[in-house]
Automatic annotation (TrEMBL):
Keyword set includes Oxidoreductase: yes
Domain called FAD-binding: residue spans: 2-342
Descriptive protein name: 4-hydroxybenzoate 3-monooxygenase
GO molecular function, one term: monooxygenase activity
Keywords: Monooxygenase, Oxidoreductase
InterPro entries recorded: FAD-bd, FAD/NAD-bd_sf, PheA/TfdB_FAD_monoxygenase
NCBIfam families the record matches: PRK08243.1 (NF006091)
Domain of life the protein comes from: Bacteria
Length: 396
């Protein structure tokens, strides 16, 4: 097989890139190691920035999102016995976020791609990328026990943080800049209507908690736990009691409880691989960078990366100019580090470190009160949370 752009990984980044390249007339093939059911069911992000929503619409993948997605005009910060609502459109000149699960985005993109192309191969595990710094790189993969190769003009690594492409550049040609955190998120899905119409981010004396949702009937909740926590160690009753104690800190607000249908513990990390290019290999999405989930940025960054790549390959295809491709790494790293900063800020402001001293807690509360008391401070948070507009993927 051969193609112009070989895409490693069929998560949201790889699938959307394929859709955008197809729209620009650039040939590509997606190789995904897992089966379709696994990729469609993997529980992950829930919040789409306005720019992400606009891109999905522009490439014809927005129909079900527009029907079923929940448009949110605000988030609530809960701390120190106080609740403050960050009004997103008022503070950002009209930008909002949409609750539409990553599982649904992926489902929509897969069904479009299987119906209209370009080729998408499941159960195709990429084992190596050869000649990334030559004119004709080769992607080696294994499918049904058989080794195969895809000859490409360019390769894009969209294979996530545990993929193979981020380790293709030799150590002398890449830098990994990262930070770990001394806590994890315990996440549950529950068959119960959300307790609030909007997301609640809570700083409590017992630690961070987040109330999110997947639909008007399904809640998604998280609370911070020590690293290494085994989800099986918590009974359902203990989980609900812990969540209630972290959220029920203002007025007579009560948490709705119901059957828990899924649970997991997620460690968190900030990490960026620089540069996001090595020869003819480009990295996008979690393959290039990850953020802790507190700012809801990961999926949106992945989308913005592939929008830029689609513009760059489109420009090359249309008039032979590699200028956008050459600028890709620098262009994206600037935006990536903005999101890294915001995600780290949200995480370190809302979580309690093990044995955190009272001084550190007072600083967190001072920062949260500042956001609630100053339109400027609130606007800074709102702008980052609602996101910055990516360029038009089908132009440029
Ligand atoms: P993915 O989704 O990890 O997809 C990578 C794909 O590559 C495949 N793969 C391979 N394929 C072929 N050969 C190989 N050798 C391969 N190795 C791997 C994998 O099977 C997979 O299908 O990366 P992508 O596409 O870059 O997408 C990134 C997002 O998934 C991620 O950033 C977000 O989920 C992060 N995130 C959130 N982002 C948001 O914008 N808003 C949120 O509200 C939000 N919440 C979250 C999150 C991530 C979470 N977890 C689990 C880390 C909440 C959580 C709990
Ligand atoms: C989610 O709904 O999974 C979610 C929402 C907001 C976040 C992280 C995760 O900051």
């Amino acid at each position: 097989m051969e193609t112009t752009v070989g895409i490693v990984g069929g998560g949201p980044a790889g699938l959307l890139l394929a859709r955008l390249l197809h729209a620009r007339g650039v040939a590509c093939v997606v190789l995904e190691s897992r089966d379709r059911g696994y990729v469609e069911r993997r529980q992950r992000a829930g919040i789409l920035e306005q720019g992400t929503v606009d891109v999905l619409r522009a490439c014809g993948a927005g129909e079900r999102m527009d029907r079923e997605g929940l448009v949110h005009d605000g988030i609530e910060l809960r701390f120190d016995g106080r609740a403050y609502r960050v009004d997103l459109p008022t503070l950002t000149g009209g930008r909002r976020v949409t609750v539409y699960a990553q599982t649904e985005v992926v489902r929509d993109l897969i069904s479009l791609q299987l119906a209209e192309g370009p080729p998408l191969l499941f159960d195709a595990t990429v084992t190596a990328v050869e000649g990334a710094d030559t004119a004709r790189p080769v992607v080696h993969y294994r499918r049904d026990g058989v080794d195969a190769r895809l000859d490409c003009d360019y390769v894009v690594g969209c294979d996530g943080f545990h993929g193979v492409t981020r380790t293709v550049p030799p150590p002398a040609a890449r830098r990994v800049v990262e930070r770990g955190y001394p806590y994890s998120w315990f996440g549950i899905l529950a068959d119960v209507p959300p307790s609030s119409d909007e997301l609640v981010y809570a700083h409590s004396p017992r630690g961070f908690a987040l109330a999110s949702m997947r639909s008007p009937h399904v809640s998604r909740l998280y609370f911070q736990v020590p690293n290494g926590t085994d989800p099986a160690d918590w009974s359902d009753t203990e989980i609900w009691a812990e969540l209630a104690s972290r959220f029920e800190t203002v007025g007579d607000w009560r948490l709705r409880t119901g059957p828990i249908t899924a649970r997991s513990v997620l460690p968190m990390r900030s990490s960026v691989t620089e540069p996001m290019r090595h020869g003819r290999l480009f990295l996008a999405g979690d393959a290039a960078h990850i953020v802790p989930p507190t700012g809801a940025k990961g999926l949106n960054l992945a989308v913005a990366d592939v929008v830029e790549l689609a513009r760059a390959f489109g420009r090359l295809h249309d008039d032979g100019s590699p200028d956008l491709l050459d600028a890709y790494s620098a262009t994206r790293l600037r935006a990536v580090w903005r999101a890294e900063h915001f995600s780290h800020f949200m995480t370190s402001t809302l979580h309690l470190a093990p044995d955190q001293d009272p001084f550190a807690t007072r600083l967190q509360l001072a920062q949260l009160h500042r956001i609630a008391d100053s339109r400027h401070a609130a606007a800074e948070l709102a702008e980052n949370y609602a996101g910055f507009a990516p360029p038009d993927p089908l132009a440029g």
